[in-house]
C-alpha cells in the first residue's frame, strides 16, 4: 500500500517480511468472490457459445507467436467468390 507495488504470493512474492505484513488482498480475489464469478460464467457460457457460433478456442498457454499465428489462421479466410 505504501509504494503501490504489486506482489503475487507465488510468482512475485514480497521481498521482506515487513513488506509482506503491509500487504492487502484485493477483495475481488477472495475465494468466495471467485466462486461467484465462476458460477456466473458457467451459467452463461452455453448461451455465448450458441450466439458466437464462429468462435474458436485458443490455447494461450504457449509461445505468443504460436498464439498469434493460430488466431491469424482462424480469422484470415479467403473471401467468397461470386459465381457468374
What do you see in this structure?
The chain is mainly α and 84 residues long. 46% of the residues lie in helices and 0% in strands. The chain has one domain (17-76). It has 3 helices and no strands. It is elongated, with a radius of gyration of 21 Å. The termini are far apart. Keywords: Kinase, Transferase. This is KAD8 kinase.
The number of helical segments is: 3
Structural class estimated from helices and strands = mainly alpha
Distance between the termini: 68 Å
Quote the average pLDDT. Answer: 87
List the uncertain runs: none
Largest β-sheet summary: none
Helix content: 40-55%
Overall strand count: 0
Q: How many structural units, i.e. domains?
A: 1
Shape assignment: elongated
Q: What percentage of amino acids are in beta strands?
A: under 5%
Cα gyration radius (Å): 21 Å
Order of helices and strands: HHH
Short description:
By secondary structure, this protein is mostly helical.
List the helices and strands and how they pair.
Blueprint (H helix, E strand, L loop, with lengths): L16 H6 L8 H21 L12 H12 L9
Features:
elongated; P-loop_NTPase; mainly alpha; 84 residues; kinase activity; 46% helix; single chain; transferase
